[in-house]
Amino acid sequence: MKAYRALHKLKQQDLADLLGYDQSYVSLLERGKRHIRDMVELRRLAHALALPEDELGLLPPTEAAVTVRGFAGEPSEQNPLAAVDGQRRWRMTRRELNRHRADLTKAAARLYPDVSRAGNSPVLTRESWMWPEPVDFADIELAWLTQTSPPCPVRGDEAGLGVRRHVRGDHR
Fold first, then answer.
1. Which end of the chain is more exposed for a tag (fewer CB within 10 A), N or C?
2. Which pLDDT value is given to residue 146?
3. Does position 136 have pLDDT exceeding 50, yes or no?
């Protein structure tokens, strides 16, 4: 709840009003002094906050369930709840990083003054990632690929994963 409030710039009283709670109860929930264990109430909160239910610790519907696999492709022996919790923590971390994207970009630019920038922005880049000159949007052709699976399995430890671009008359 605290992360939700911070993301939406709400006071505890604002969140309490939104959820139909007393402000002191929201405070207790945020500090971990109280817990909501009733699934119906958790679903109501997810709906009121426009959050996916799994963000509040509820398992996704069975049709949305996926098999968690280990690195070698074998089914994981981990509890599926651990995977759901990991996904929730990842989403919360992404939200927090996105909230501070501009500040983090400027801090990285200060920490790495000799690294190339994307144009005149503070965004760090590599020369090999940049085109020598701006590309006109009219020169970009998009094509739909019907291939639904990668030609080889992606494990995440491959070196030099890059983005391929196609601009009329040039293949990269």
1. C
2. 79
3. yes
DSSP β-ladder status, 170-171 and 166-167: antiparallel
Residues 6+ apart with CB under 8 A from 73: 153
Residue 89's pLDDT is what? 82
Q: Tell the residue number behind the tokens 């699934």, with chain if given.
A: 39
Side chain identity at residue 51, one-letter code: L
pLDDT at 164: 46
Question: What residues contact 15, with CB distance under 8 A and at least 6 apart?
Answer: 1, 4, 5, 21, 26
Rounded Cα gap, residues 53 and 49, in angstroms = 10
Give Cα separations from 103 to 37, 48, 67, 97, 108 (angstroms): 37, 31, 37, 10, 9
Q: Which two tokens stand for residue 157?
A: 């430890």
Q: What's residue 61's pLDDT?
A: 56
Q: What is the pTM of this model?
A: 0.39
Could you tell me the two tokens for 37?
Answer: 């264990």
Per-residue model confidence (pLDDT) at position 98: 85
Q: Residues 92, 98: contact at Cβ < 8 Å?
A: no
pLDDT at 171 over 80: no
CA 131, 147, 128 angle in degrees (round to 5)?
15
Name the nearest CA neighbour of 54 among 27, 76, 82, 93. 82
